[in-house]
Write a structure and sequence with these properties.
heterodimer; A: mainly alpha; 5 helices; B: 142 residues; 0% strand; elongated
Chain lengths: 144, 142
């Protein structure tokens, strides 16, 4: 059984390592396929995130990729409201939390769809740019 | 136009630019504080998914580069996750035995994912992820 648990971790870890929402995937995997209660799955996700984030952050700090100032601005209210959100989640029943989470997932999926469309659009524009540049370079080389 | 006039126009333009910058900074700071509150609430309430909002928020609202946005999102999510995990512990909804196995898997997967990212970064992975998210959302709603 514990091998199956590790497998669930590996699948969502791969997605997380690729910079997409690993935790967003881990919670539905645990609740749908393993039948774990919603709150327990959420707690597991929070704990699983911490060691990965510390290791990744050390690497990012070495590469100077972290914008500390805007990060701190986000953290101030973030920490306060996360306490509020977690306390609220403790009071709500597992079933209601699950329904709300599924709506949240649909929202995330919708935004992901918009993001995909946006990136495909950007790729097309870049292709056109390259074509135009190629065209002009050929033209100018002929003139010369 | 006399010389003094030119200087005056330059000065007024400078003041305009300065005030604009100041206003932009203030509104950006306010926006960041509000976004932080939203991210914190979502991550506390649903135990995850804050990063999915933090990265686009940083790239679109604060005009950060992709890599910087990812790194900063991790920096924001770490304290938020620790704090909400502590609150979850008080709610007695933590299964430590289960968490250890999943965390081990998560670390292995994270390393594999980071290595995979160097080899390939295609839209197809995102499309599959999007479909899976939709499927899970519908399955959990029913």
């Amino acid at each position: 059984m514990f091998l199956l648990y590790i497998l669930a971790g590996v699948i969502s870890g791969i997605i997380a390592g690729m910079g997409m929402g690993g935790g967003t995937l881990l919670i539905p995997i645990l609740t749908i396929f393993y039948g774990i209660a919603q709150k327990t799955a959420q707690g597991v996700n929070l704990l699983a995130f911490i060691p990965m984030a510390i290791v990744a952050l050390i690497i990012h700090f070495k590469n100077k990729l972290v914008d500390v100032k805007s990060g701190l601005q986000l953290i101030i209210f973030g920490v306060v409201f996360s306490i509020g959100g977690a306390i609220l989640a403790n009071y709500i029943s597992n079933g209601l939390l699950r329904t709300l989470f599924s709506i949240f997932l649909l929202f995330i999926g919708f935004f992901q769809l918009l993001h995909i469309i946006h990136s495909i659009y950007l790729m097309k524009i870049n292709k056109n740019k390259n074509d135009v540049l190629k065209y002009y370079s050929i033209k100018y080389s002929n003139i010369e | 136009m006399t010389n003094s006039n030119k200087i005056l126009i330059k000065k007024t333009n400078l003041i305009k630019i300065k005030t604009q910058k100041c206003n932009n900074k203030k509104s950006e700071c306010f926006l960041k504080l509000m976004l932080g509150a939203l991210i914190g609430f979502i991550n506390g309430f649903w135990g995850g998914g804050g990063g999915m909002i933090c990265v686009p928020a940083l790239t679109f609202c604060c005009a950060k580069k992709d890599k910087v946005a990812h790194a900063t999102a991790l920096f924001v999510m770490l304290p938020i996750s620790i704090v909400s995990f502590i609150v979850y512990c008080f709610g007695k909804s933590i299964d430590l035995n289960l968490s250890i196995f999943i965390t081990i898997g998560f670390i292995i997967g994270g390393i594999v994912g980071a290595l995979l990212l160097k080899i390939m970064k295609s839209v197809w992975v995102e499309i599959i992820f999007c479909l899976v998210i939709f499927a899970c959302g519908i399955r959990m709603l029913i």
